[in-house]
């Protein structure tokens, strides 16, 4: 499909989804080729929203993402599962990155550090490595990590993104919708 001028790509993405990590470079490449703007809509992982993921599905995803990574040439496979605290900390870092327009850089650093180099973002050293790779000031992120206001804001934003995802008739990540850059109209 052709992406019209003045379009944006709503990218519904999860820090825990290995498929989100694999799709990231491809979405960035499409946006660069078409001039579309990427509008990140991060959502909490399914298991952090109380949804069950059966063992058979988890095993399938592990095998399939390794195959997909080889097919698209994305480094992948040496990782520390970021479910729980690492993902919550990543949302705080993303909240800081949004203030400086560094969201995509943070996502790229996350994909590289967490999903291909085994960095544990649940600890300060790990998250700091991700943040510094994205050009974020660690002291800003560290301060935000203890802010109740930031915690409430990113959680509300993540929930609004989930509602928008479902409102578009989508359910999983990564998911994409191309919309007019002037409005939230789907094109």
Could you write a compact summary of the structure shown?
The protein is mainly α and 187 residues long.
The low-confidence parts are none
Oligomer: single chain
What series of H and E elements makes up the topology? Answer: EHEHHHHHHE
Q: Please state roughly what percent of the residues sit in beta strands, choosing from under 5%, 5-15%, 15-25%, 25-35%, 35-45% or over 45%.
A: 5-15%
Strand order of the largest sheet: 2-1-3
N-to-C CA distance = 11 Å
Give your account of this protein's structure:
With 187 residues, the protein is mainly α. It contains seven helices and three strands. Strands 2-1-3 form a three-stranded mixed beta sheet. Strand 1, helix 1 (18-34) and strand 2 (37-42) form a beta-alpha-beta unit. The longest helix has 20 residues, at 148-167. It is globular. The chain starts with 6 loop residues before the first strand and ends in a 7-residue tail after the last strand.
Topology:
Blueprint: E1 7-13, H1 18-34, E2 37-42, H2 55-72, H3 85-99, H4 103-116, H5 124-133, H6 138-145, H7 148-167, E3 175-180
Parallel strand pairs: 1-2
Antiparallel strand pairs: 1-3
What tags apply to this protein structure?
187 residues, 3-stranded mixed sheet, mainly alpha
